[in-house]
Amino acid sequence: MHSAKRRSIALVAAVSALVLAAACSRAASDPQPTQVADQGPAAELHLGYFPNVTHAAALIGQAKDFFSKELGSTKLVSQQYNAGPDEVSALLGKSLDAAFIGSGPAINAFAKSDGQAVRLVAGATSGGAQLVVRAGINGPADLKGKTVNTPQLANTQDIALKKWLSQNKLTEGAGADQVKINNTDNAQTLDLFKQGKIDGAWLPAPWSSRLVLDAGAKVLLDERSLWPEGKFPTTVLVVRTEFLQQHPKTVEALLRGELAATEWALANKGDAEKVVNDQLKALTGKALSQAVLDDSWNQIALTVDPLAGQFPKLAADQVTAGVVKTAPAVKGFADLTLLNKVLQSANKPAVDAAGLDKK
After folding, report:
1. What is the distance between the alpha carbons of residues 230 and 331, in angstroms, rounded to a whole number?
2. Which residues constitute the signal peptide according to the record (predicted)?
């Protein structure tokens, strides 16, 4: 073989190797998720939620067997949480397949995984969060030098409080002109308020109602007053993207169960309250008084609409709150295809993804 020909073959081989290496490198760094084939109904569905009134759809879906009826042979395995960041860890660690979760942590799960790990598939609750304080605190300025609790760092209420403080020119800290923020379990927050060790808390229902009716707090701010028409997504339903791709029929069944639970609750308010209270007693060891239950229920609106149009603002709120430096991207976060299929089958209007279903 002539030397020139050998050099030509070697050059082609070298170029081919470089092209192959570059292709492999691009594949390794490609941020697009690998599409997983539909594997039919799942053997198990691991579902997370909170023992809160704001998670009424989950509590009712479990207690009244709306979920199990629709899931059929799929075993429902449930897990309770105190706040969203713990659920995010479980979702990212794949120990949860789906979760009823606050809007803030839902966005964080999407952002932390570069838009890969989870998809917003439905709403659950609008409203149901308040800033409650002790007597003598009548406005933002009165919080200087005071201590206010939220359920967990960077959870939905934590972000809401920090954003509101920022808008009112207040900073977080231990100084005389600052507001100290503690992140504490809801039940412990109630005890601390009763003991006079904190001055207020931004909490979801029923805990805000319990501080008012059981511990003598007053409502300084109902979060509904900060949103158009008083609507904001307190609780939504997210699913791991991989699970959604592998088991769309299972996710569709879960959504049918949630819709059934929601519709039943809206048509049977008194019975729905009782079911939720019974579930809270079973999960926490203590039922709510009727006054607390009524007050909590009046704060919320159950809806499968995730109010997707609010999520860009919720993402921007994290910057205002000082939780992140750049607003998390939410394009591509929503996949409401199965929800709208379920709604269409039930002769109900579709819900709008507000552009969040496209990158």
Report:
1. 24
2. 1-27
How far apart (Å, rounded) are the C-alpha atoms in residues 297 and 201? 19
Rounded distance, CA 79 to CA 96, Å? 8
CB 106 within 8 A of CB 315: no
34 falls within a domain? no
Q: Let me know if residue 20 belongs to a domain.
A: no
Do 245 and 341 fall into the same domain?
yes
- Judgement on whether residues 183 and 112 belong to the same structural domain of the protein: no
* Whether residue 201 sits in one domain with residue 97: no
Which of 203, 229, 255 marks a domain boundary? 229
Look at residues 87, 130, 127 and name the one whose alpha carbon lies nearest to residue 110. Answer: 87
CA-nearest of 54, 58, 49 to 260 is 58
Main-chain dihedrals φ then ψ at residue 279, nearest 5 degrees: -65, -40
118's tokens: 């989870």
Its domain, for residue 154, covers 129-229
Listed in sequence order, the DSSP H helices in the chain are 3-29, 56-63, 66-71, 84-92, 103-112, 156-167, 186-194, 207-215, 241-246, 248-267, 269-284, 290-299, 311-320, 337-345
Q: Is 53 helix (H, G, I), strand (E, B) or coil?
A: helix
Per-residue model confidence as pLDDT tens for the chain (359 residues): 444 444 444 444 443 443 334 334 333 333 445 677 899 999 999 999 999 999 999 999 999 999 999 999 999 999 999 889 999 999 999 999 999 999 999 999 999 999 999 999 999 999 999 999 999 999 999 999 999 999 988 888 999 999 999 999 999 999 999 999 999 999 999 999 999 999 999 999 999 999 999 999 999 999 999 999 999 999 999 999 999 999 999 999 999 999 999 999 999 999 999 999 999 999 999 999 999 999 999 999 999 999 999 999 999 999 999 889 999 999 999 999 999 999 999 999 999 999 999 98
How many domains does the chain divide into? 2
Query: Are 235 and 329 part of one and the same domain?
Result: yes
Encoded amino acid at 168, one letter? N
Cα distance between residue 49 and residue 292, in whole Å: 21
CA 322 to chain centroid: 19
Phi, psi (deg, nearest 5) at residue 168: -100, 20
